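QA checklist item 7 of 12: single-chain prediction sanity check.
[x] sequence parsed
[x] length recorded as 116
[x] structure emitted
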Amino acid sequence: MLHACGSSRHFLGRVVGGTGYERDRKAEFAQRSPIARADLLRVLDETAAETDGILGALDPGRLLEAREVPRDSPQSVLALVLRTSHHWAVHTGQIVYATKLLTEGSLDELWMKTMR
């Protein structure tokens, strides 16, 4: 969750929205102790609100505009939006799969539903 939020705030917040967010990618992965549910939800809510504001104010005519991406090559605004959306989809799938692995019987249930 910390990584997905950090990535969104970097690519959409900083690069597209100009928020000035300073990403600490290593810290996103370094957290090993449990994080309170309320704290995770706060981070997610803040990220969602920031993203909503940026995308809501985005002029569609600027989607093909190139943006400089720190430590990466320039990318269009559209590519950054799609990159972020895809990134969330991948990690959401991983979270669902890991949760199913930890819940007895759930993985079999997931497999049966996808094979119908």
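[x] summary fact logged: The chain has a mean pLDDT of 92.
[ ] second reviewer sign-off
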